[in-house]
Amino acid sequence: MLENANMYAQAKTWNPFKGCDFDCVYCTPSFQRQSKRQKRLCQNCYTYTPHCHEDRLDKIPSARIVFVCGNADISFCPPDFTRRIIDRIVEHSARSPEKTFYLQSKQPGYFASFLAVLPRNVILLTTLETNRDAGYEVISKAPKPSVRYQQFKALDYPRKVVTIEPLLDFDLRTFAAWIRSIWPEYVWIGFNSKPESVQLPEPSEDKVQKLIQRLLDLGIEVRGKTLRGVKLPPAKAGRTRAS
Hints:
Blueprint: E1 11-14, E2 17-18, H1 28-35, H2 43-47, E3 51-52, E4 65-68, H3 79-95, E5 100-104, E6 122-127, H4 145-154, E7 160-164, H5 172-182, E8 186-189, H6 205-217, E9 221-224
């Protein structure tokens, strides 16, 4: 278990596709602000408009962990170009099987048509900030949390990770049950890292502490980022994953 870690610390981003139209309020001071630095290089990057960079297909970073299209939501990528991205991952993995590739989307159902061609060093991720749909439209245009959960759960793929970051207020029992039914390899969890720029309806630290403990008791690994006063206690000895 990692406390106050950076989920990208050991990873490098590979962006043959960039941009997103989900307009998440918490992305404006992070990913979208980073894109503003690209004005002289690419107008679409500057405006965060979904677009392809074919010239980057052959420029896979040397890192052991590669975050694919980390400055985008890949569900906006044309499927034929996504297939070309996956083909490059397959080719590269034949030479460097020790690498891990992350593919993340807030519309995880997009991955369904690609599951059969994904190599096993690809991990699929989705963000679930909460289990609550009510009011979510002021946070993001992405599929509501319940829809995203059902899509991700339905993917017949053995390697999944859930990012609960930035945390929005949730219902403890329901949210923990969602995560358990997805059964991810691990969970990233953390509060909003830019509270000075965007205010979110957050849970109390006590509630987050209880969620973490419940997940650990289930045998689900939890990794932390921007935990404030929340601690990651050790998992109970002898605990194994339930089926």
